[in-house]
Amino acid sequence: MIRKYIALLKASWSLTMEYRVGTLVWMLSNTLPLIMLAVWLSLAEEGPVGNYAPADFVRYYVIVVIVRQFTTAWVSYELERQIRLGELSPKLLRPLHPIHEHVAIHLADRVFRIGLLLPLVFLVFWFYPEARFSVDVFPAALAVVTTVVAFGVRFLTFSCIGLLSFWTTQSESLSDLYYAAWVMLGGIIAPLDLLPASVMHIGFYLPFRYMLSLPVEIVLGKVTGVALWQGVFMQLGWLLAGFLLFRLLWHWGVRNYSAVGA
Amino acid sequence: MRYLKLIQIFYKNCLLVDLEYRANFLINSVMSVFWASFAILGIKILFLQRDHIGDWSYYEVLLVIGLFQLFTGVMEGVLRPNVTQIVEQIRLGTMDFLLTKPVSSQFLASMRYVRVWHLVDVAVGVGICGYALYRLQVQVSVWQALLFLLLLCSATVLLYSLWLLMVTTAFWFVRIDNITHLFSAIFDAGRFPVTIYPGWVQGVLLFVIPVGFITTVPAAAALGRLSLGYAVLSFVMAAVMFVASYFFWRFAVRHYSSASS
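^ Those are the sequences you sent over. The predicted structure of the assembly is below.
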């Protein structure tokens, strides 16, 4: 299994390098956090918004961009296409579960993205010293762990939506809806503590915070004590739920799947 | 006249095709209303904290959002379907058949298709604009209304030219889905009045990727706060981009040597 995975990762890395310009353009297309940063900065000109001074917004959105690049996933669109066009059929015959191919390409892509991103982050903190901050070892380590789990939650729940293509042709619209909810409740439109309390009360139970915002909150020290462990617990809960749901949908879906032209 | 008649035939043909897929009407309507509410919720969050963004009030920003939705509809309904086809034709080499037809190749390539159900976005956008203007109780003079409509036309021409410029690069790059995606991502900045962005970003959004002329400038005209200079500039930009995209297309077609030949 490990040897298969190493081979898969090598192949994915070559693929990532082959499409490097494409990946770069995709990274550049992540403009929404920057647009929102500009908007919030223009609001913060008159004085702090909530607890946020201009430097706090810069710091927040820089970390959002990093975590987002780490956790981004497009697997639902890939699964949708493979199921709709029947590309999945030959892959089902292979000795390795077809989802591992997607896991590997996402992982290889991470290495490439972070390599490009880190120098840019250093430049931001270099030219904008007000945004620098210090973080203890423990929250930093926990932030790294929760970022990895956040990728897991995002990958698995998006995969589940992609798998709905076994039954419907509209899973792409569902992906868009899910994505929009994530933009709203995951911390991109606004830091979550600027949303109305009633919304965040519901948001606590939904998966969106655990796909992006939680690691950002941890590294900035916005969530501590009991609330921190509640957050981590909810995140692990969603990881497990996503995994079980994926197994279930895959099992049902493959059983009644008959590809186009088969 | 001949071109108008052709458009009539093309669009009727597309309407007949789309009528076969009536379920798409429902789905597009749901998605359009959803995206509009998404945009409105987004600015509601901002207006929880302040009652102004820059010097724009809530309903004034809503007018910008309405225009954004309207032009998204134009993009998805009228421009993108053609782009998809051109790219496909360049890739497969069937562009040759298009070039040999006795009408302008640019016209055929860019006006042939329309996705009727995506025009729901246009309707939703017009609705939002109407509601915002009603709540603002602006007294629009005849001149102002005329200027607003003219600016909408110039925005449409501008958007068309930008898409044509992007598409034309497909003669060299073949795959341009990345480029159009990047364009949409930058177009997203048009959800907000450009005046709230830092100076250099405003410059980019007005003169490099002129999104500002598409949503902010017409909105400012309707609110009676547009200086004449910007109105003139808007028409000049539209004219320059249109001519530039026309010559770029001609240049590209002249250098096109079909696929695998």
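DSSP finds twelve helices and no strands in chain A. Residues 19 and 25 of chain A are 10 Å apart (CA to CA).

Shout if you want it in another format.
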